[in-house]
Amino acid sequence: MSATRRTFLKGIIGVPPFLIGLSPLSLLAQEEGVLRVAASKPAGNLDPQKFSGLWAIQDLMFEPLINYGPGGTYEPALATEWQVENDNKLIRFHLRDGVTFQDGTPWNAAAMTWNLDRWLGKEGFSWMNASRLFSSYNVVDDHTVEILFKEPVLGLLNEFSYIRPSRFLSPKAVDAEGNYQKPVGTGPWMEESASNDGSNFTRFDGYWGEKPSFSRLEVKVLPDSRGRVAALRAGDIDIIGGDFLAPIRATEAVTLKSAGAAVIVEQGSTTVTVAFNPVRNPALGDVKVRQAINIGFDRAAIGKVLYKDLVQPAGNLFPETVPYSGKRFPVPARDVEGAKKLLDEAGWTGDGTRQKDGVPLSIEFVVSEEQLPGARSLAEIMQAQLGEIGMDIKIRSVDHASRHSDLPARNFDMALFLTLGAPYEPFGSIVGLMLSTYDNGVDGKLVVDPENLDPLVNAAMAAPADRIEATTQAIYDWLHDEVAFLPLYYSPAIWAHTERVKGFRMPATEYDLPFEGISLEA
Question: What stretch(es) of the chain map to CATH 3.40.190.10?
């Protein structure tokens, strides 16, 4: 649909006064039942077995066997029920009947196994336990499939809820050689068009579940955070938010709330942490130095100054919103004199920047604004406060590409890390960020200790269900006792929407797009 200036001015006659100030785009959205959502970048390649598209956009079209629900619950999706047997070495899925892909292809065991063949057991997907330990599958009947594994699979149900590679593409959405051609799933939205400016979707009226109350969803690419906030306030965009879709800074959340926008802030499942690299900087190999750093800066002050009290200071690897997150450790309080005493005991002495054997206590801190907005300011606060106890913190800011090369190569003394967040937790971060023998690609390792930590992680990976809590707690205890990393704060989930959006619900993970249950006020 298009609107000329003449037809727009003609059509504005009779519009309620409270809508007069809205832009033409906003009025068209209200007329047509269109939900407009901001994204920081184009959707990209949406093949669910690739790793380049926007998760939240893939979520619109592709469904899993199991949905990861609030608080780590599991909800039926393309499977109505499942059984895990043989000590987590077999899972049996009962598939939902009467479901079709958006191109009319039936959802059944054949479609499921065709998708499994694209990733399960393949080398490129060995970062997933289900793929690395895959043995075989057995088609029991048209709507029942069993998958067998060589060993127990830690986080098995979580892995079958991932947006990629565990979601399902129509077998007809590839060419004769099996190459992906277009995004066709079983979900409630069908892609109508896509460009660098955004993507448009129409409702799939053949969807098996509850259908959206509005007929169209448009994703508009707005790379600049301030531009997204302005578009929301103008009514050109209805929803912004999500760490991986259109992030909102804490200061922007406060501004939007004061301007009357609906701002939703809830405890997320991601933790911002600092990694140590004692191999590159031997000073960090002394636990007393790590303890001094741990109490040498003020987490609460960082939360107040930089994040407007929207973050919760952290004492643990995971917030309580993560299953098996362990007993709560106290949040370290700043203790300048205690930190100085620890450094004295470790042999680092002198005025100004401390020294030991003629070597200054200098530490390089690597941060990336592209990874975490505000990272530079956070590092500068730590730099100033740790300087008061005699440490010389040198900050090196890197872009996204440099971070993804520096972190795996351990080219840092200290570096900011984020845990993976739901639905990957807790085992995604425990294994991916801590097991030295596990190749996690460009993410790098938060903690590396093959002698002490690897056996604890391996014990958790092999633990039966009744031992998971104890074996994960053993990991947390060791990390805490060794001050093996610094938990800084638990990152909140932040979304904002206009008044015309009713029934908004915070998504269960930062990878989902929150459209379910929404209605649009006329």
Answer: 32-45+187-261+498-520, 63-159
For the stretch 374-419, pLDDT in tens is 899 999 999 999 999 999 999 999 998 899 899 999 999 999 999 9
CA-closest candidate to residue 299, choices 278, 314, 281: 314
User: What are the C-alpha distances in Å from 316 to residues 154, 326, 427, 446?
Assistant: 21, 8, 15, 14
The DSSP result for 457-496, as a single string, is HHHHHT--GGGHHHHHHHHHHHHHHHT-EEEEEEEEEEEE
**What ranges in 273-399 are assigned the alpha helix state H?**
287-295, 299-307, 336-345, 375-387
**CATH homologous superfamily, domain 63-159:** Periplasmic binding protein-like II (3.40.190.10)
Report the range of poorest mean pLDDT among 178-187, 190-199, 253-262, 329-338: 253-262
Mind listing the pLDDT tens digit for each residue in 303-352? 998 888 899 999 999 999 899 999 999 999 999 999 999 999 999 999 99
Q: Which residues, 6+ apart, have CB-to-CB distance to 220 below 8 Å?
A: 36, 37, 38, 39, 197, 198, 231, 236, 237
Query: Regarding the domain delimited by 32-45+187-261+498-520, which CATH topology (the fold level of the hierarchy) does it fall under?
Result: D-Maltodextrin-Binding Protein; domain 2 (3.40.190)
Contact 484, 456 (CB under 8 A): no
Dist. CA 469–CA 217, nearest whole Å: 42
Tokens of 506: 């915070």
CA torsion, ordered 313, 314, 320, 326, to nearest 10 deg: -160
**The pTM is what?**
0.85
Half-sphere exposure of 408 (CA within 13 A, CB side): 13
**Percent of the chain as helix, strand, coil, to the nearest 5:** 30, 25, 45
- All CATH 3.10.105.10 domain ranges in the chain, comma separated: 268-492
Burial class (CB in 10 A: 0-12, 13-18, 19+), 409: exposed
Distance (Å, whole) CA 97 – CA 246? 36
Q: Are 79 and 94 in contact (CB under 8 A)?
A: yes
Tokens of 6: 């003449």
Q: In this structure, are residues 325 and 318 in contact, taking their beta carbons and an 8 Å threshold?
A: yes
Exposure pattern of 14-30 as b/e (b: 16+ CB <10 Å)?
A: eeeeeeeebeebbbbbb
Size of the chain, expressed as the number of residues it contains: 522
Separation in Å, CA 197 to CA 40, 43, 53, 222, 430 = 10, 9, 15, 8, 37
Q: Which CATH number fits domain 268-492: 3.10.20.600, 3.50.50.100, 3.10.105.10, 3.40.640.10?
A: 3.10.105.10
Distances, alpha carbon 410 to alpha carbons 345, 403, 442, in Å: 28, 10, 11
